[in-house]
Task: structure prediction
Amino acid sequence: MVLKPGLEGVPVTQSSICDIDGIKGELRYRGYPIAELASKSSFLETAYLLIWGNLPSSQELRDFENAVQMHRRLSFRVRDMMKCFPATGHPMDALQSSAASLGLFYSRRAIDNPEYIYDAVVRLIAKIPTMVAAFQLIRKGQDPIQPRDDLPYSANFLYMLTEREPDPLAARVLDRCLILHAEHSLNASTFSARVTASTLTDPYAVIASAVGTLAGPLHGGANEDVIAMLETIGTPDKANNYLNNAIAQKSKIMGFGHREYKVKDPRASLLQEFAEDLFARFGKDEMYEVAKAVEQNAGPLLGPRGIYPNVDFYSGLVYRKLGIPRDLFTPIFAISRVAGWLAHWREQLSANRIFRPTQIYTGEKNRTWKALEERANN
Ligand code: ACO
Result:
């Protein structure tokens, strides 16, 4: 048996959802290039494409949008449960718990019933943003506000966060960010979703397990750390020194490196464009100059090893300009990635085999039991 830590390069499933060319820096959802989707599609249309396999007709899209709009509200029981969460808790933990709680309300485990599947998809896509926004208000001591039916998906999310109708550019940029983060093949959280799905448990457990996996700093959590790193560097002239020290100490540069991409992540380039659109309209962020200096100085240091900016490098700067608090960056990633997780949930169910890998045992064999009083250091 050959051990492959992190399953690097080991195919564990077949998938027709997302295709990555890490050498050319290309990403396609269901065959459509990511840049085209980000400029022409909406998040809900992209979610439909990912989950059901094809672009919707105008009627299908209208039905899907209406269904999502109808299910955006949370039961008072969920809101009351969230009010008992500690205000100091991380919003990803709040989201994982709230998403899991949906299973208490809607679980029938009727996963061979297309109507149940459609309803679960709609509920999860509809309610996750409401949960993120609700926790944000609750932890400030306020009551969550109801979604507004006249606002589209991303505009409504920003409204629920801030109680202000957002600027159309801000809402469109957020929607485009959600498109970019919606799917990325068999990353850690998606693998987690598929492992959970393979047990035939309910979709709320599938999504809750994926949210927990996304929370880690080596995965979705890196976008928070990028802003912290830029603030530590402080000014563009200090970027080179910081990088050299970090590399000498074998520390990771957050927002750099990817298991799949050996060039700049195409989503990082698009997010950089979105950031520049926002800066042109709402004013600059001084940390953007630091980020550009980090990217420029990292080129000769990390580029030869195929380590370039990933999706997390510029996303934090975009969210910051949208006025979103730092610890909501990863929950926003989750709002988007739920589309990919659900696509993989459906795909896993269509040809299921429970995941049960093997191990190479390295522990001791045949030890002799010792009574408590005979053990050393007692
Ligand atoms: N900064 C400095 N060196 C790096 C970085 C980095 N960001 N990423 C990888 N390397 C180096 C490692 O130190 C290692 O060097 P070594 O061979 O001398 O020990 C080599 O490149 C391989 O690194 P691994 O961590 O083994 O690469 P892997 O493919 O497993 O990791 C990962 C990919 C986890 C994303 C890694 O690049 C990393 O930790 N990046 C920083 C965290 C981050 O930005 N995460 C977000 C990823 S995107 C996402 O999940 C949404």
